[in-house]
Amino acid sequence: MLLELVRQARRRRTLVSLAAVVLLPVIVVVAIAVNGGPGNGNGSADFIDIASRSGLNAAFFVLVATSQFLLVVIVALFAGDSIASEAQWGSLRYLLVRPIGRARLLRVKLSAAALYGIGAAVLLPLVGAIAGTIAFGWHPVTTPVGGGFSAAEGVWRLVLSDGYVIAMMGCVVGLAFLFSTMTDAPLGAVGGAVVLVVISQVLDQVTALGVVRTWLPTHYWFSWTELLQTPMVTDQVARGLISAVPWTIVPILLAFLRFRRKDILS
């Protein structure tokens, strides 16, 4: 496992992805500091309107801005590239020649991809909080509905919110990993997962679908914003966590079943 983590850390796509994860929050904070400002008045506001009120507000905005697409692409890249890249390079067969079973190989690859995905999800708001604190100071958090809470409480809620986002990324890992076992084209596996997520996001906007939308993997993605309310509300968060379970586990199980029967030619 450690060897796989080190091996993946040396790859260019890992270095580029992690560099983007670190640089983007800094760029966002600089842009807000130069062009943005706090929202007017004490009423309802968007996350961007209140991002400059404290470092933690900036971190929450970074989480909102990146969790819909950028984080999806990065997580899909780690998971979708895991098996497909080995097949593309022609090294998959040689990995299986060693005294290592297919299931164990998948577990190692999946674990490494998941850990790098979690690392990316943690770095985004963390760097945003650090850059935001340098730019805007360490102040109490202001919420979009006009309320707020202390900075210490804000740290705890940021941790909970990021943990929820990580759980929602489970479906991205599952789908990309499944596609990775079905093709020797890494971009195909990554693109397939990203396209399905985008389709889910589009369908979730179609209110005519009614209750069907609640079965979509992205329907509850932004329910973590309920954690910023005072008092904290967790109804939608609980539903989101429950809905994430099948969208994470089923694709992973299918990946293991398919790979076990797959004829490895490369």
Explain this structure to me?
A two-stranded antiparallel ribbon has the order 1-2. The chain has one domain. The protein has helices spanning about 1-10, 10-35, 45-50, 55-65, 70-90, 90-95, 100-135, 150-170, 170-180, 185-205, 235-260, and strands at about 140, 150. With about 270 residues, it is mostly helical. Helix 2 runs antiparallel to helix 5, helix 2 (about 10-35) runs parallel beside helix 7 and helix 9 (about 170-180) runs antiparallel to helix 10 (about 185-205). It is globular and about 60 Å long. The model is unreliable at about 40-45 (pLDDT under 50). The longest helix has about 35 residues, at about 100-135.
| Rg from alpha-carbon coordinates | 20 Å
Major β-sheet profile: 2 strands, antiparallel
Shape: globular
Going across the biggest sheet, name each strand in turn: 1-2
End-to-end distance, in Å? 23 Å
Q: How large is the count of helical segments?
A: 11
Helix content: 55-70%
Q: What percent of residues are in strands?
A: under 5%
The arrangement of helices and strands along the chain is HHHHHHHEEHHHH
Describe, in short, the structure shown.
The protein is an all-alpha fold and 266 residues long. The chain has helices at residues 2-9, 12-35, 47-50, 55-67, 70-89, 92-97, 102-136, 151-168, 170-180, 186-204, 235-261, and strands at 141-142, 148-149. It has eleven helices and two strands, in the order αααααααββαααα.
Keywords:
mainly alpha, two-stranded antiparallel sheet
Question: What is the topology?
Answer:
Elements: H1 2-9, H2 12-35, H3 47-50, H4 55-67, H5 70-89, H6 92-97, H7 102-136, E1 141-142, E2 148-149, H8 151-168, H9 170-180, H10 186-204, H11 235-261
Antiparallel strand pairs: 1-2
